[in-house]
């Protein structure tokens, strides 16, 4: 009982100190911010519940109490206080997270056009109140998402988003700026088929308007999209159109050479390179891989004592390069603490380095040093890969649809000249999808909470690959995936003190 009273007195004292330091306006803004975060979490939980249950009748609309409360909270007058808050707590980002949930995720689970139309009307009214605080890049992403929904499900949206940052939602005809914003948004999302449609519409609109513009630049961009979409003939015609106007155009000449090389590869293999890569990726993600018997015989599984930490089971899934899975390395409590701390800091952060949002809701955060040690110390004792470990433990969260193309993970040469070993730590149970891939060795690993995958950036012949992709991840089908990345150095005597595990 004495302990409870001491705790209550301490709590009151801290509250008095905080209110003394902060003025009343700051306290009110903080409370309002917490309320908004709480309501937004409730809304996302509601959407996820509806998606999980698959009951289209429970689709959220503008009359749903939680959505109504959220919109009312956003519309309150004191929301200007958010301009002083850090980027990951700025409320327009949280609003846009809901936008992408409703527009990009909801159509995958329901064909209920009426319910989806209600969602888009809520989105439009919410965005209308926040346009003054959203940059043109954000605007492009929202416009692209709504246009994509309209295209796929033929929904009659009553409005489109104006390209002006300080503008408002209008029902007028698309102008040249809007075409350009939508085309660039689709291009940034690597949806080349959609980008081609908008670029072609932009080209046609320019020609009809009679306004002078840089035709070569637009045709060069269009030809690049044609190449990415494997429309070689269309790409060739666009390149020739540029060369007729400017025979020395460097980009057009470069594209012409690339198209010729691609045509040679197509004639030799019968399949374009891009299609072969995608096929291999899909085969790894969906197929049941079985290694040859000669390889299987060299693989093994054994138990390993790790001192004061948990006893781990080691599974060797590939020999050259060496790929090992350490099961039960880290206890659940430490993992949950790391995830909870990261969730607070990652909340609302869904922008990449270019300022664009991502369908995968992939966000990266450098973990707090305290939580880093909770994970890295048992990891060091279990693997004993090296005496030195990079202090930067990167935590990543993947949402539905998250996953990376296996040909985009490029490792650059390390500045210290050290051979690097990577470790991926699975922090939660993944319900469906999200497998970890090593395309070079055709190895697929299913995420399990507390397991650690250790692999070196080498090819199947043991050669260090410093500028070649070696790993990928399958998209999630349901739920979310939390992973952490650690880096080992294999020459501890050359490692600087800032890489020390015990610093």
Automatic annotation (TrEMBL):
Organism expressing this protein natively: Owenia fusiformis
Protein name as catalogued: Uncharacterized protein
A single Gene Ontology CC term: endoplasmic reticulum
Taxonomy, superkingdom: Eukaryota
Keywords: Dioxygenase, Oxidoreductase
Cross-referenced Pfam families: P4Ha_N (PF08336), TPR_8 (PF13181)
Cofactor: L-ascorbate
GO molecular function: iron ion binding; L-ascorbic acid binding; procollagen-proline 4-dioxygenase activity
């Amino acid at each position: 009982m004495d302990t409870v009273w001491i705790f209550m007195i301490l709590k009151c004292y801290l509250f008095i100190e905080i209110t003394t330091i902060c003025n009343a306006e700051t306290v009110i803004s903080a409370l309002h911010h917490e309320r908004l975060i709480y309501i937004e979490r409730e809304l996302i939980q509601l959407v996820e519940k509806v998606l999980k249950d698959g009951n289209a009748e429970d689709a959220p609309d503008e009359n749903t109490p939680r959505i109504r409360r959220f919109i009312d909270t956003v519309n309150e007058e004191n929301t200007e206080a958010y301009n002083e808050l850090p980027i990951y707590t700025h409320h327009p980002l949280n609003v846009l997270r809901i936008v992408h949930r409703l527009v990009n995720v909801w159509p995958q689970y329901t064909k209920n056009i009426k319910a989806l139309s209600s969602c888009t009307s809520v989105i439009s009214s919410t965005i209308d109140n926040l346009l003054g605080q959203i940059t043109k890049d954000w605007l492009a992403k929202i416009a692209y998402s709504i246009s994509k929904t309209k295209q796929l499900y033929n929904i009659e949206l009553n409005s489109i988003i104006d390209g002006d940052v300080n503008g408002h939602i209008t029902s007028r005809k698309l102008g040249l700026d809007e075409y350009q914003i939508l085309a660039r948004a689709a291009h940034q999302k690597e949806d080349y088929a959609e980008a081609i449609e908008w670029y072609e519409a932009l080209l046609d609109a320019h020609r009809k308007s009679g306004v002078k513009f840089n035709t070569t630049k637009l045709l060069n961009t269009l030809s690049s999209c044609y190449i990415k979409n494997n429309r070689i003939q269309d790409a060739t015609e666009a390149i020739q159109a540029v060369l007729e106007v400017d025979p020395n155009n460097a980009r057009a000449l470069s594209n012409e050479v690339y198209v010729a090389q691609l045509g040679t590869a197509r004639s030799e293999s019968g399949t374009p390179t891009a299609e072969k890569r995608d096929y291999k990726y899909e085969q790894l993600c969906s197929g049941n891989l079985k290694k040859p018997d000669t390889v299987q015989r060299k693989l093994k599984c054994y138990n390993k004592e790790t001192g004061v930490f948990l006893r781990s089971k080691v599974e060797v899934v590939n020999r050259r390069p060496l790929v090992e899975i350490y099961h039960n390395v880290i206890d659940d409590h430490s993992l949950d603490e790391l995830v909870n701390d990261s969730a607070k800091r990652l909340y609302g952060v869904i922008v990449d380095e270019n300022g664009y949002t991502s369908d995968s809701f992939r966000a990266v955060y450098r973990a707090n040093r305290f939580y880093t040690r909770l994970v890295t110390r048992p990891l060091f004792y279990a693997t004993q890969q090296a005496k030195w470990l990079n202090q930067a433990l990167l935590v990543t969260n993947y949402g539905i649809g998250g996953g990376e193309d296996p040909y985009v993970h490029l490792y650059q040469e390390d500045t210290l000249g050290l051979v690097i070993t990577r470790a991926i730590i699975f922090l939660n149970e993944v319900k469906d999808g999200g497998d970890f891939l090593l395309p070079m060795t055709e190895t697929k690993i299913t995420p399990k909470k507390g397991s650690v995958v250790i692999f070196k950036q080498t090819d199947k012949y043991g050669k260090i690959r410093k500028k070649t992709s070696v790993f990928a991840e399958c998209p999630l089908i349901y739920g979310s995936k939390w992973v952490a990345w650690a880096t080992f150095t294999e020459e501890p005597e050359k490692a600087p003190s800032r890489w020390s595990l015990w610093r």
